[in-house]
Amino acid sequence: MVALVEHCVYCFDVLRRHFDPQQEAEPEFKNGSQAYPLFVTWKVQPAHPTPDDEELRLRGCIGNFNAMPLQSGLEEYALTSALRDRRFAPITSKEVPWLTCAVSLLTDFTLGSDYLDWEIGKHGIWIEFRNEHGKRKTATYLPEIAAEQGWSKVETIDSLLRKGGYRGHITETLRASIKLTRYQSSKCALSYDDYLAYCESRDTRPHITRIATCV
Predict the structure, then answer these.
(1) How many Cα atoms sit within 13 Å of 123 on the Cβ side?
(2) DSSP string spanning 79-128?
(3) Residue 149: left if φ>0, alpha if ψ -120 to 50, beta else—which one?
(4) Average pLDDT over residues 54-59
(5) What are the AMMECR1 domain coordinates in residue numbering (predicted)?
(6) Could you tell me the pTM of the whole model?
(7) Burial annotation 190-211 (CB, 10 A radius, 16+ → b, else e)
(8) Pairing between strand 179-191 and 99-111?
(9) What integer is the mean pLDDT of 67-72?
């Protein structure tokens, strides 16, 4: 399965319906019987950017490694990542025009032989480890994260340990104890401006049920 523009459009529709219940949200993609692990990511461009604000800022990224039907999975995680990512305040309606949505469908899960058994830019990684109190913890980064940040494999692993809540000194022994699963993803991203253009095109197709009123 390939991530499609229509998947991102549906996430925008769902988010807009959250702020305006009169909006409709019906997918234009085939849901079928297949299910996929998936993530929805929201990023924002500052309304009045400065030269230091060229990069989009993360506003939420949450998904599920359990396979989910596309429609219900995207509907759930479009809102969960926008409103319930504990790292950020919930996205507000005023931010919507500045958002970019990305949908990642995860595939090809393989257990790594050690914590270095993956490729930067190709694989996402999911790690399991024990924290300093012996409690099992997990954390993941999607395939693009390490490359975007310019991290080495070790830097990526150490960042993941911190993301997963490890607060002690990171040693090679700790890294070697990690259980790592690598995976790949198909990703599609869509800005709000492109979403509006899609809506305008959609509204001129009389044979397609109108999904949202785009202004």
Answers:
(1) 21
(2) HHHHH--TTSPPPPGGGGGGEEEEEEEEEEEEE-SSTT-S-TTT-EEEEE
(3) alpha
(4) 85
(5) 1-199
(6) 0.85
(7) bbbebbeebbeebeeeeeeeeb
(8) antiparallel
(9) 94
Q: What is the largest CA-CA distance in the chain?
A: 62
Q: Domain residues of the chain, as ranges?
A: 5-203
Element housing 184 (H / E): strand 179-191
Between CA 91 and CA 115 the distance in angstroms is 34
* Other CB atoms within 10 Å distance of the CB of residue 141: 21
Among candidates 157, 106, 169, which has minimal Cα distance to 127? 157
DSSP helix/strand/coil, 41:
strand
Contact 183, 108 (CB under 8 A): yes
**Residues of 58-92 as b/e, b for ≥16 C-beta within 10 angstroms?**
ebbbbbbeeebebbebbbbbbbebbbebeebeebe
pLDDT at 48 over 90: no
- What tokens were used for 133? 């109190």
List all residues 6 or more positions away from 68 whose beta carbon is below 8 Å from its beta carbon: 35, 36, 37, 38, 76
CATH architecture type of domain 5-203: 2-Layer Sandwich (3.30)
